[in-house]
Amino acid sequence: MSDSTPPITDAATDTPAAKGGPSNLxxxxxxxxxxxxxxxxxxxxxxxxxxxxxxxxxxxMLWEFYRMMRAGGYAPAxxxxxxxxxxxxxxxxxxxxxxxxxxxxxxxxGQPIHDMITAxxxxxxLGFMAAVTMVVALFTSVISLLKELGSWPDQKQPFANVxxxxxxxFYVSIPMCLLIVIAYGNHGYDYRRIFALLFLIWxxxxxxxxxxxxxxxxKMAPKISPGxxxxxxxxGFVMTLIVGWAIGFMLPDLPLAHRLVAAGVVAVFAPLxxxxxxxxxxxxxxxxxxxxxxxxxxxxDRFDAFLLVxxxxxxxxxxxx
Length: 321
Description:
The chain contains ten helices and four strands, in the order αααββαααββαααα. By secondary structure, it is mainly alpha-helical. It folds into two domains: 47-189, no CATH class; 191-321, no CATH class.
């Protein structure tokens, strides 16, 4: 999501671009088109491309988080944490793609019990994912602590470093793994579910920007993100509900009530995810999480809304069966 947080450092930001180089707007458009094409194409093409794309995305997001922690004076075990995140993401993808396949109905006394079994399997998969996550987190903490023991007393805050390594997993990687839960549901991979989520988040962002620019007067969180207003949030909420209704043309089997609840979750938690990352950046004194996408900042800047939306949607999906 876009972030209107102004620079924290005193470095000049209005230096003219070198002659002959592309303007910042042109860079934003070019990289925005490339990023959107890669995102939508990977989700649409196959479960494999979806998994590989978001495994890479969450790993870069976590790396950017650790980079910001280092800017704040901490020293998390970056590669240990990134490796752990890839294990968690891979195991989650494995559990939904290959464990307990749901394509073939099961029968008892000649009667199909497909729906009951698939609902049970979803709970079972989530339990398996939670167990693996806790084991990997435990080993991450142990390995990180061993690293701190080896570097003491060069590192003055060893337990804070271990906490930063674990915090990145729980703030970034585990929520991003829940994309797999959304994508597969109870009946296998369906790219339309991820498309719907993307459209809702983009609607929230675009609606908030348009309404905030036009009507914005009352600041939502001026000490964290001065550009955000309550009028902008209201505009984003309305736009998200409209898109929530419209995605019924793409997902006709999804009831209207479910679509509107999902839209409401996005409208509330997407801006909070953006604010949370803005607070993080202000706390460590950086403007952008990274520079992987020129003109757009880092991937954590782009996907910050997902980090609070996905846990809520995954829980609601589990409860709704």
